[in-house]
């Protein structure tokens, strides 16, 4: 009952923040969130993918010590891991955390590392959703690099939204692909090396392919299946966060 009350309060808070600040420029949203709204209780989740450098560059301008959470699924392209190291070094980020799946989950459910071929939802759950919930549980809010233009499923994405009893902030929600390119160019940010090979949204190696001109950026994620999201942005995360909030031993 207390948890439900808290979730309703946070949902109201997110709606109020969206009404007041949802049209600010991304850098202003980030400064507001880090310096005024959530202080030391905020993190950023980054995939170190095709456009991740923009949000991370903005965050570095406000506070390089902002915790950066990277879901190290064990299935990334080697190029992504090298790109992560390059960006961390060039932007001077000082508090980057690799978040790994639970060892016993891998041992019990994916001992051969092939679960993505037989059950992608379960693979995403043990490699992304549960680790994500564990990673953000200590914070009151976290930021993501999601944008409305990326896919039809994100077309009404808000800057401020609630996830259970926490606030999720998408500072770049209204930015276009052209905005991102212009920002990367103006600040000479290095591109992810796979962008040149046609990858416009980059996740785990077994589930990511290049896309054609005119396709959604995310069309290359889980191509050939009905899956469009890994679950870290969907209700499964809310459920998992509720479980973790109630079970300290999971923290
Ligand atoms: S994106 Fe693919 S490999 Fe990565 S966690 Fe999900 S199913 Fe597994």
Model description:
The protein has one domain: Rossmann fold (3-Layer(aba) Sandwich). The longest helix has 20 residues, at 2-21. The two termini are 22 Å apart. Helix content is 43%, strand content 9%. Mean pLDDT is 89; it is low at 245-251. The chain has helices spanning 2-21, 26-37, 52-62, 78-91, 103-109, 115-118, 120-136, 177-186, 235-246, and strands at 42-45, 68-71, 96-99, 141-143, 160-163, 166-169. Helix 2 (26-37) crosses helix 3 and helix 7 crosses helix 9 (235-246). The structure holds iron/sulfur cluster (SF4).
Spell out the key features of this protein.
metal ion binding, binds iron/sulfur cluster, six-stranded mixed β-sheet, 4 iron, 4 sulfur cluster binding, Rossmann-like_a/b/a_fold, EC 1.8.4.10, 251 residues, 6 strands, PAPS/APS_Rdtase, Rossmann fold, alpha/beta
The largest sheet has its strands arranged as 3-2-1-4-6-5
Helix content: 40-55%
Q: How can the largest sheet be summarized?
A: 6 strands, mixed
Secondary structure: number of strands: 6
Give the CA-CA distance, first to last residue.
Answer: 22 Å
CATH superfamily: HUPs
Coarse structural class: alpha/beta
Strand content: 5-15%
**Small molecules bound in the structure, each named once:** iron/sulfur cluster
Average pLDDT, all residues: 89
Architecture (CATH level 2) name: 3-Layer(aba) Sandwich
- Could you please say which CATH topology applies here? Rossmann fold
Report the radius of gyration as a whole number of Å: 17 Å
Q: Which class in CATH terms? A: Alpha Beta
Alpha plus pi helix count: 9
Give the low-pLDDT segments.
245-251
- Shape label: globular
Strand/helix succession = HHEHEHEHHHEEEHH
Taken together, the total number of domains comes to 1
